[in-house]
Amino acid sequence: MASKARNPFKGLTRRITRSKAVHATIAFVVRGLIVGVRSLGEERAGKVASSVARFIGRFVPETKLARANLAAAFPEKSEAEREAIVQGVWSNLGCTVVEYVFLDKLVDIDPERLGEGRIDVVGVEHFLAMRDDGKPGIIFSAHLANWEILAVVAARFGLPVVSLFRAPSNNVIAEDLLQQREQMMGKLVASGRGATFEVGAALDRGEHLGILTDQHHRRGPQVPFFGRPIYANPLVARLARHYDCPVHGARTIRLPDGRFRVELTPPIEMPRDEEGLIDVDAGTAKVMATVEGWVREHPEQWLWLHNRWR
Asked: For residues 249 and 260, is the Cβ–Cβ distance under 8 A?
């Protein structure tokens, strides 16, 4: 039997892309782009990014995936309606990327003067209750609108949240992001080995965890999502079971004229088993049902580009 031909350049390519010099060069380019975006100003940069993202979307395979996902999730919608959602997804993503650069100015919320900035907040009383109750708590969210705004708003209300995030493979860029984001958001924990211990230690101290829970998790339980089974992240339900702590949902909604609305739900009643403990599978299903409801309201603001159903 003939053996598979090996690519002699594969190892070399891997070593080059992981080298410190390449990382530093890419980081230099990214920093230059950030300076260029700032020079355009937020409004102009957002319009440019939206147009560029929609243009790029014509040529990438993720668009085909998004169309298939939308056809399965919304069979009652016309092809034109679903295509409008796809265009909205790319536009939202382009705007979100640019907004990272202006995030410190974008979240202009003052808890003492609510309603005067660009961020409307629903559920202020829940932010304050979590801040003052002296107990650990969990806030789950999804990749909707600009999801980074949530942690910044929580910090402005004096509720720093320990947030799980996926660090870029480029170490230089990852360090830049970590420094900038922690100044506005609070503690960030890179997902991966050791993250569970850091999260557990934070909850032991009575702190609060923020987690995006809408992506594929190959070791999670199967639960329904838009009528199809998915493997979902059980971390919210598992930690809630262990700590018997409040669970809240939070989302950001993109509004016209560059405004946003942040919504924090009341404590969610998680299903319990015969022993009175939170049921992990049923709890995970309830979390994803909440996310599905959010996505149905504003489908153009969710990342349909992700292969959620595998």
From this structure: no
pLDDT surpassing 60 at residue 167: no
Q: How far apart are the C-alpha atoms of 191 and 55, rounded to whole Å?
A: 32
Residue type, 64: K
Token output for 115: 């309603």
| CA distance linking residue 187 with residue 202, whole number of Å | 10
The dihedral of CA 46, 49, 50, 51: what is its sign? positive
Single-letter amino acid code for the residue at 38 = R
Q: Which residue has the higher pLDDT, 26 or 233?
A: 233
Residue with tokens 């190959």: 218
The strand pairing partners of 264, in sequence order, are 250
**Is 275 strand, coil or helix?**
coil
State the distance between the two ends of the chain, measured CA to CA, in whole angstroms. Answer: 33
Residue 184: per-residue pLDDT: 63
pTM of the prediction?
0.84
User: Average pLDDT in the 248-262 region?
Assistant: 94
